[in-house]
Amino acid sequence: MRRRDFLAASAALTAMQARAQQAGPPKGRLKQCAMAVNFKEGTSFDDMCRAAVKAGCQGFDLPEPKDWPTLRKYGLTPSTAPRNGYSVEDGMLRKELHARMEPLIHGTIDQCAANGVPNMIAVGGQRRGISYEEGADIVVAYLNRFKAHAEEKGVTICLEVMNSKLTPDSLGRLDQICDHVAWGVDVCKRVNSPRVKLLFDIYHVQIMDGDVCRNIQQNLQWIGHFHTGGVPGRNEIDETQELNYRFIAKTIADLGYTGYVAHEYRPGPGHDPVQSLIRAVEIMTV
């Protein structure tokens, strides 16, 4: 290597390391993550990463695979991979889509393992007349197709609990099969794999089941990931909404949870997204 090329490469490496080190030591006992919805539309991904680092985040949730190298540049972990091959409406419940979805899910597991992504999201999908009992049988059988592969690769499939009470324009997910903690826990228990767990979305759980901290305490072994959001409205998690997120954070941390907590709130009108993210991380730093 020529001296000029060596110096250029060294400078690039030094700059990358400096960016990664800007985050400083982890804040508190929880590994917190930002998400794209925390920012104004049109914000560049690099600016999102810089804001996440400034706030003290250790990860970024549901980024597209093309953005994973950028996260690494800033010292952030892509904490959960997005859906690939299915949607909130047409999820794992749809038997007619299983053959098409299966290679895509296996591919996501491999892609996560190769890139150090610990989790991948999964959704049950809309019931469309299917009973909860039949739906559980279908989803359990389908997840059983992937659990050995997920265990081998060390990737956790996280089935999200959603609310089916509110309409989509109010951030609800009408007709979802996985709309209660008890249903999701039953599925995870039946699959019985350390790599199939719940994505415990605190916003959705509060709307459907309430009793958030007790649900966490009773079911932590089946929870692989958390999402936050203020109730009502899914805005900031501060004093403008009904949940005490500081208490929730302490509950999670006191149980010894070692996974990630991702902020999925939307900044309220007129709020500075960067300051809102800094405040959210402060609230959950325990």
Please characterize this protein's 3D structure.
- This protein is of the alpha/beta class and 286 residues long.
- It is built from eleven helices and eight strands.
- The protein has a single domain (25-283), classed as TIM Barrel (Alpha-Beta Barrel).
- An eight-stranded parallel β-barrel has the order 1-2-3-4-5-6-7-8, surrounded by six helices.
- Helix 4 links the parallel strand 3 and strand 4 (119-122).
- It is globular and about 45 Å long.
- Residues 1-24 have low confidence and may be disordered.
| Strand-residue proportion | 5-15%
What's the number of helices?
Answer: 11
CATH topology: TIM Barrel
Helix content: 40-55%
Low-confidence stretches: 1-24
User: Count of DSSP E strands?
Assistant: 8
What is the molecular shape?
globular
Order of helices and strands: HEHEHEHEHHEHEHHEHEH
CATH architecture: Alpha-Beta Barrel
Task: Give the structure's gist in a few sentences.
With 286 residues, this protein is α/β, with parallel strands linked by helices. The protein has one domain: Alpha-Beta Barrel (TIM Barrel), CATH 3.20.20.150. The protein is built from eleven helices and eight strands.
